Amino acid sequence: MIEPVVQMLWASSDTEELPNEDSTLLEFDEGNLFSLNRFPGSDAVERGPRANVGISWTRHDPNGWSLGATVGRIFRDEDLDQFGPASGLDGNRSDWLAAVNFDLADGFAMTGRLIMDDDLKVTKGEARVTLNRPRTAIATSVIWAVADPLENRDDPTEEFTFNARYKVDPAWTAKMSGRYDFVADRGTLGALGLEFRNECIRLDVSLSRRFTSSTSVTPTTDFELSVDLIGFGSGVKPGPSRTCRG
Q: Per the domain annotation, does 242 fall within a domain?
């Protein structure tokens, strides 16, 4: 299936009066290439006339796997200085977005995404591999992004992250996560957790260690305990029901 799309939008170019506090971190990907507003929060709205242009190719195989690719770009009437260099959205023309995703029927998935300028210089890149099985789930990702003071990032980012869970039995689940910074050549975050869930309650215990330090942040170790009463508006999916055997 091939889908070429051209989307024309008009919006006011007037300057916003609200300070932008909750929309400073932007993501430009195939999911919002044709969005009316790419700001994630409520403090900022994407302004000015523009055209979102892209083409996607998708193959759905009868055996259950699928492969997709998307290429796109945004053309603006004028640059209103709403976006930083790391977003890939600054300028009269955004950077090129190129994304590929591959999914197997057994829960294995791979995603790759690049944002690059006309000279093919990469602004941001990300690769993600996930495995989702009934008892085991693993998600790993590698990300690279240029420095951007508007996103409170004075140095380029090169990180590897992973999250894993293992269902010990229907009620108990063990969890683990971590993050490694290639620029600093050290781990920045590590966490372990254990969750108990039945039809009435969810109990979550976790221990995490943040290794980074700066003028405003010091290394910390946190212990967290949370309890949710399921069925009282918590939005948590119930676990297995208990059974009595005589």
A: no
